[in-house]
Design a protein that fits this description.
This protein is of the alpha/beta class and 177 residues long. 34% of the residues lie in helices and 21% in strands. The protein has a single domain, classed as 3-Layer(aba) Sandwich (Rossmann fold). It binds flavin mononucleotide. Low-potential electron donor to a number of redox enzymes.
């Protein structure tokens, strides 16, 4: 069985709720995903997992969620070479349109040079924002799934469902159900 670990940080609960929905979708495909608050996480647990999903919200004009920021040094000690990783971020595209899901960009900047095999890039189509640190060079993809519970909560379930389907393919996980 594939060891899938989802690590999230959250200030007001939205990133944890998204984690539960992601877990549910994986479970429907027959895969167990362990959820872990980043405050409980360790470099050893990350090293052990076959697949990691990291969830992070952005706060205070492009600021990194505090618990993830505290975990930065530990994360930098992990062995991520070839590790399958996907990122998702919570943000508010109208309220903070110059900094939309910036924290995903921050995580990407850390893990990409470490040799992680990053999957789950997500099209920017359907979002209305000015700028983001989480944009790919061609500006048509985010470095992970963008979820906006403040402005587009009605789209979140479908986005999560489609993203998990994409991940199952990109991680080459068979439907085990
Ligand atoms: C004071 C404040 C600052 C915020 N700053 C940003 C920001 O810079 N970029 C962004 O995309 N979202 C920003 N947001 C939106 C949050 O990221 C969003 O509400 C998210 O769902 C919170 O996730 P959490 O409940 O897991 O902490 C901000 C929200 C507040 C209230």
């Amino acid at each position: 069985m594939t060891d899938i670990l989802l690590v999230f940080g959250t200030d007001t609960g939205n990133t944890e709720e998204a984690a539960e929905k992601i877990q549910e979708r994986f479970s429907e495909a027959g895969h167990f995903v362990e959820l872990m608050n980043v405050t409980d996480c360790s470099v050893d647990r990350i090293n052990e997992a076959d697949v990691c999903i990291f969830g992070i919200p952005t706060w205070d004009f492009g600021g990194i969620q505090g618990d993830w920021e505290d975990f930065e040094e530990e994360l930098e000690r992990a062995d991520l070479k070839g590790k399958l990783i996907a990122l998702y971020g919570l943000g508010d595209q109208f309220g903070y349109g110059d900094y939309f899901i910036d924290s995903v960009g921050w995580l990407h900047e850390i893990i990409e040079p470490m040799g992680a095999s990053i999957k789950g890039y997500w099209p920017t189509e359907g979002y209305d924002f000015t700028d983001s640190r989480a944009l790919s060079d061609c500006k048509t993809y985010f470095y992970g799934l963008a979820i906006d519970e403040d402005q587009q909560f009605e789209l979140s379930n479908d986005r999560i469902q489609n993203w998990v389907e994409q991940l199952l393919e990109e991680f080459q996980l068979q439907e085990a159900a």
